[in-house]
């Protein structure tokens, strides 16, 4: 398929304009900018401030996940990876975790949700040095993949909220 240069430029302008519109939803409550204590940003990200350092928050998250008998698939330190290529990145670490009892019912509601599973949680320090814990809302994931009603998404969401609350507790 061949697309004219003018059409390509027009599509790029529309897409870039849409990105700018998405940024307009982020303000004082943007979890990446040091906003309120608990912020739910656009596009399904739930973020909570943590009173702990990024490393302590991630260690607490991993321990809480294991305590609830969920499998830790991977722990990825993005800041360490950046350092290996000579770049500097504020603390940013990802935990990938889950189990078939939670993930399978989500995929039965919307099979393509499998692209977003296992679940992930990100711990990061924003520009002000505030630590955050964020994760994708399972109901948002189901909506992303074209479904509206999924009791499993609500259950998984409650479990994730419980995990997150335990992690950021003082």
Task: Give structural attributes.
6-stranded antiparallel beta sheet, 6 helices, 44% helix, 170 residues, disordered N terminus
Number of domains: 1
Q: Could you say which structural class the secondary elements and strand pairing correspond to?
A: alpha+beta
Give the biggest beta sheet: 6 strands, antiparallel
Oligomer: single chain
Strand line-up in the sheet with most strands: 1-2-6-5-4-3
CATH topology: TATA-Binding Protein
Q: Which blocks of ≥5 consecutive residues have pLDDT under 50?
A: 1-29
Give the N-terminus to C-terminus distance in angstroms: 57 Å
Global mean pLDDT: 83
Task: Report the β-strand fraction as a percent range.
Answer: 15-25%
What does the model show?
The structure is a single chain. 44% of the residues lie in helices and 21% in strands. It has 170 residues and is α+β, with helices and mostly antiparallel strands. The chain has one domain (31-168): TATA-Binding Protein. It has a 6-stranded antiparallel β-sheet with strand order 1-2-6-5-4-3. Helix 5 (138-144) runs antiparallel to helix 6. It is globular. Residues 1-29 have low confidence and may be disordered.
